[in-house]
């Protein structure tokens, strides 16, 4: 009974699952939790030189052994650098029952870094395996002691004895580890069994299934039964068995597999002898057809598709490349959440479980043979191609095999993939040099916007397998909208794969558990190491939404009709759902953030075919104009929210009155030879007559608020020439690009600033700045787009609401990976509350399109951090700069080469804006009543 229970618990085999007469017995854990302790001896580095215990599977560096290496350390530390070449000696004792004798017993390793020498009971199981990311097995039937204890010994060499394996896998731009990092199990089969199955299931229902047997006898039969997801039998195919048998059949009108319709079927293949089934293999698959139509595009099931993709490493900070099912699922769901449809498995085959999630959720996959700028030799590479393809061949999600990365292509291996793939998937080269087109697809990396346009006007399909390098807060979704629109609208555009999904930060067990991203080498993700969502994550989600809505504001004659473009490939918008809401924003002095949903309803999903434009009609109530905002949420046929768009109903000039209240008259103006003072309510502001800048701000308690040093014009020249007092208004005239600033204070304490400027040259930003100590900040709350910061070329992924961010010193790409960042540019701000140790103060505007900049931050770390910032600490801006990429600084014209939105701003004409400031909370009952808000003691 115990044996049967153990068998039932071990029936899940990563890959094909064998029913009835095949058993799986794990010798290790199934993933990084739980694991199994084996005996272990490390020959070098930390905790070396003595026998102890280690968790299997694991990367031994993360268990406290050996030395850490990043793959580019040989470049970082020079020609005399040598990689840590320690070995790990593993021992494990296990038993097999006597009843297994006479069957085939394989020991299977899902992944070992790097060379693995395996012995059972002191006898070699076979040739040393070389290559980290591949499933390999040995038949150990003759080496076992049945019914008693067996000793497994595995010697793992971190550096391979084959130089080409090190070149392909370890001299790479990622962390390199050592150890048995994926599971180890025994595979128990009958002596005669089905060794391998490859399936070719086309979208038209045609089906071919090729089975390899260890041996066969006359009269042996193979019977394949095809069932749908409900378990209904659709067809049976039968053929005489031989060492390699091809079964052919057909399923009428199958539901096809695509990223939008991940329909899965199941085959059950039985090897029958004398009327009895002696072996059964069961596996899921999908009906789908992949085509490269040269000088045209990539087609799935006869429909042209474009890749909204990202590059993914198998990585987790605490456990390195040893993952678990929850991490695999989380990553697949995050890709779907970004509205992406594709992933490139860079730069090696992933865990099989991840591919299973891609099958079931619907994600196109590039499965890649390792080869980071240098390739395997033919001798080393041939068995690894075989292992990779045989493990992964029947996943419908895999639409391409990639033969290495950026020059790591051994062209002698190109035709090896087809030897094991019955469906004949295309092979691509993920390269970084122009002119290396292969199989009709150019995958060249890191072209700029203008060279991309040129390539798309050529004759090859263009699908960059890396673009918009996302180091720190640069790249990722910055400039993505223009790149995506280029590909969407170009005949030869096939989309591409952003570099990369996550910051590859490892918890350093030798450095007090800090998370190390190896300087600027590995913080390349739109997600942090623990999948913290950066601004580019949310921007990509909007840009890649298959329901595309470009309307930025409600037109004056808005009647509920919203233009929409269907960027699904297979799905009519009438299969989606659309929910509208009328919202009221929380008022500035409310204790909470967010909004109030006042009314909501469903819109009829429009009949808009894939890649066609149409409109959605919202059935809004007659009083819809009485609310602050309108939102629309699109949901796909699987119930996943695609995106929520929010538009102001009331203009900024009306919304600001929630902050400033009703004007009750002018405050007082007093002047001296050196200063001019405005006083109103409980607020006093003193200006320097010579510079026009604020000298001091005080509230009713006579406490100074350290808001000073402005206004400073952020671009160009602005020198105060003279000051006048005109009807309770202070007017400063300037020489230079800023022309005039007017200051006026209501007798309720609200300070108004009207200014104008004109620039006749390009500029990264334009507006005014003030000083305020960053160390005094506690939080900021605002009505505007948020909660994430933006750049000129990454304005997407933020929506209108009342947001609140606590102060943090976070920066994408480095600890503490706390998002959203407090510091940055924030867009479409109507008002902002600054909560400080000195109290609260407020700023707002009656004009649309205000950006607020908060303190010091940078997008990309470089010799000189980029982009440069305006003067001061807090800025109120009409324009903000674009952000580049790690590589944009090395291309002609730098960031500007990423497209029109990545150029500097080109301001024209005179620009004017009105700002409002309040430097003291209302303190009297009368004041609270005037603003229709609680008394101050209730606020506090």
From TrEMBL:
PROSITE patterns: GLYCOSYL_HYDROL_F2_1, GLYCOSYL_HYDROL_F2_2. Keywords: Calcium, Glycosidase, Hydrolase, Signal. Residues 295-512 form the Glycoside hydrolase family 2 catalytic domain. GO terms for molecular function: beta-galactosidase activity; carbohydrate binding. One of its GO terms (cellular component) is beta-galactosidase complex. Its cofactor is Ca(2+). It comes from the Bacteria. Its EC number is 3.2.1.23. Residues 1-19 form the signal peptide. It catalyses: Hydrolysis of terminal non-reducing beta-D-galactose residues in beta-D-galactosides. It is an enzyme of class 3 (hydrolase). InterPro entries: Bact_Beta-galactosidase (IPR050347), Beta-gal/glucu_dom_sf (IPR036156), Gal_mutarotase_sf_dom (IPR011013), Galactose-bd-like_sf (IPR008979), GH (IPR017853), GH-type_carb-bd (IPR014718), Glyco_hydro_2 (IPR006101), Glyco_hydro_2_AS (IPR023232). Residues 53-189 form the Glycosyl hydrolases family 2 sugar binding domain. GO terms for biological process: lactose catabolic process. Residues 192-288 form the Glycoside hydrolase family 2 immunoglobulin-like beta-sandwich domain. Monomer. Belongs to the glycosyl hydrolase 2 family. This is Beta-galactosidase. It comes from Chitinophaga jiangningensis.
């Amino acid at each position: 009974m115990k044996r049967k229970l153990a068998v039932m618990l071990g029936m899940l085999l990563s890959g094909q699952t064998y029913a009835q007469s095949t058993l799986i017995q794990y010798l290790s854990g199934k993933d990084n939790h739980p694991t199994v302790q084996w005996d272990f001896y490390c020959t070098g580095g930390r905790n070396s030189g003595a026998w102890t215990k280690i968790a299997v599977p694991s990367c031994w560096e993360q268990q406290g052994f050996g030395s850490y290496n990043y793959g580019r350390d040989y470049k970082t530390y020079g020609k005399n650098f040598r990689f840590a070449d320690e070995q790990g000696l593993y021992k494990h004792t296990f038993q097999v029952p006597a009843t297994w004798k006479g069957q085939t017993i394989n020991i299977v390793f899902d992944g070992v870094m790097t060379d693995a020498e395996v012995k059972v009971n002191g006898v070699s199981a076979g040739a040393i395996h070389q290559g980290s990311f591949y499933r390999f097995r040995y038949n150990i039937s003759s080496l076992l002691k049945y019914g008693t204890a067996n000793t497994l010994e595995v010697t793992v060499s971190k550096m391979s004895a084959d130089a080409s394996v090190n070149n392909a896998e370890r001299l790479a731009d990622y962390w390199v580890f050592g150890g048995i990092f994926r599971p180890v199990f025994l595979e128990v089969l009958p002596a005669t069994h089905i060794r391998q199955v490859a399936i070719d299931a086309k979208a038209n229902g045609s089906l071919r299934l090729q089975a390899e047997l260890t041996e066969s006898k006359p009269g042996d039969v193979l019977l394949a039964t095809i069932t749908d997801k409900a378990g209904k039998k659709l067809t049976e195919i039968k053929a005489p068995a031989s060492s390699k048998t091809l079964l052919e059949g057909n399923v009428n009108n199958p539901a096809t597999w695509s990223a939008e319709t991940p329909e899965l079927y199941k085959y059950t293949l039985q090897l029958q002898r004398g009327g009895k089934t002696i072996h059964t293999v069961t596996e899921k698959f999908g009906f789908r057809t992949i085509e490269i139509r040269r000088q045209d595009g990539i087609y799935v099931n006869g429909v042209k598709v474009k890749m909204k993709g990202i590059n993914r490493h198998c990585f987790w900070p605490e456990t390195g490349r040893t993952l678990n099912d929850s991490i695999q699922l989380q990553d697949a769901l995050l890709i779907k959440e970004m509205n992406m449809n594709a992933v490139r498995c860079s730069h090696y085959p992933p865990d099989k479980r991840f591919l299973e999630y891609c099958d079931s959720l619907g994600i196109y996959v590039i499965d890649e043979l390792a080869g980071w700028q240098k390739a395997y030799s033919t001798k080393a590479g041939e068995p690894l191609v075989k292992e990779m393809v045989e493990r992964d061949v029947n996943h419908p999600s895999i639409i391409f095999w990639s033969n290495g990365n950026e020059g790591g292509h051994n062209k002698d291996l190109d035709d090896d993939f087809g030897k094991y793939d019955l469906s004949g998937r295309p092979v691509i080269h993920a390269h970084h040099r122009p002119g290396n087109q292969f199989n009709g697809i150019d995958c060249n990396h890191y072209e700029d916007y203008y060279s991309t346009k040129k390539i798309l006007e050529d004759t090859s399909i263009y699908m960059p397998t890396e673009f918009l390098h996302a180091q720190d807060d640069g790249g990722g979704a910055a400039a993505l909208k223009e790149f995506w629109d280029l590909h969407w609208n170009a005949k030869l555009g096939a989309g591409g794969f952003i570099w990369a999904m996550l910051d590859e930060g490892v918890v350093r067990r030798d450095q007090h558990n800090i998370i190390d991203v190896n300087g600027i080498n590995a913080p390349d993700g739109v997600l942090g190491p623990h999948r913290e969502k950066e601004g580019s994550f949310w921007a990509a989600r909007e840009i890649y939404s298959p329901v595309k809505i470009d309307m930025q504001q409600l037109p004056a004659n808005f009647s509920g009709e919203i233009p929409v473009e269907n960027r699904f490939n297979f799905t009519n918008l009438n299969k989606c759902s659309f929910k509208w809401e009328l919202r009221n924003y929380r008022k500035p002095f409310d204790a909470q953030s967010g909004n109030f949903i006042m009314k909501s309803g469903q819109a009829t999903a429009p009949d808009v075919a894939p890649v066609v434009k149409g409109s959605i009609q919202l059935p809004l109530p007659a009083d819809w104009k009485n609310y602050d905002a309108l939102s629309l949420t699109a949901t796909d046929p699987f119930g996943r929210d695609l995106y929520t768009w929010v538009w102001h109903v009331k203009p900024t000039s009306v919304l600001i009155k929630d902050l400033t209240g009703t004007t009750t008259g002018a405050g007082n103006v007093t002047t001296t030879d050196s200063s001019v003072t405005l006083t109103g309510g409980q607020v006093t502001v003193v200006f320097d007559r010579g510079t026009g800048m604020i000298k001091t701000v005080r509230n009713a308690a006579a406490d100074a608020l350290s808001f000073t040093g402005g206004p400073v014009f952020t671009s160009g020249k602005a020198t105060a020439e003279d000051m006048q007092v005109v009807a309770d208004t202070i007017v400063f005239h300037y020489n230079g690009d800023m022309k005039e600033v007017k200051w006026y204070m209501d007798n309720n304490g609200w300070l108004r600033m009207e200014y104008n400027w004109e620039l006749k040259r390009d500029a990264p930003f334009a507006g005014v700045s003030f000083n305020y100590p960053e160390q005094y900040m506690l939080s900021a709350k605002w009505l505007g787009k948020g909660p994430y910061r933006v750049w000129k070329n990454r304005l997407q992924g933020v929506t209108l609401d009342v947001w609140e961010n606590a102060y943090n010193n976070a920066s994408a790409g480095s600890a503490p990976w706390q998002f959203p960042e407090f510091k940055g540019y924030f867009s479409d701000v109507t008002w902002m509350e600054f909560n400080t140790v000195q109290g609260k103060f407020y700023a707002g505007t009656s004009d649309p399109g205000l950006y607020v900049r908060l303190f010091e931050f940078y997008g990309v770390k470089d010799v000189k951090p980029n982009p440069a910032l305006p003067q001061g600490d807090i800025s109120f801006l009409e324009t903000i700069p674009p952000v580049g990429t790690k590589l944009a600084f090395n291309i002609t014209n730098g960031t500007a080469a990423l497209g029109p939105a990545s150029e500097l701003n080109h301001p024209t004409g005179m620009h004017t804006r009105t700002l409002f400031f309040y430097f003291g909370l209302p303190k009297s009952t009368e004041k609270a009543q005037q603003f229709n808000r609680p008394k101050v003691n209730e606020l506090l």
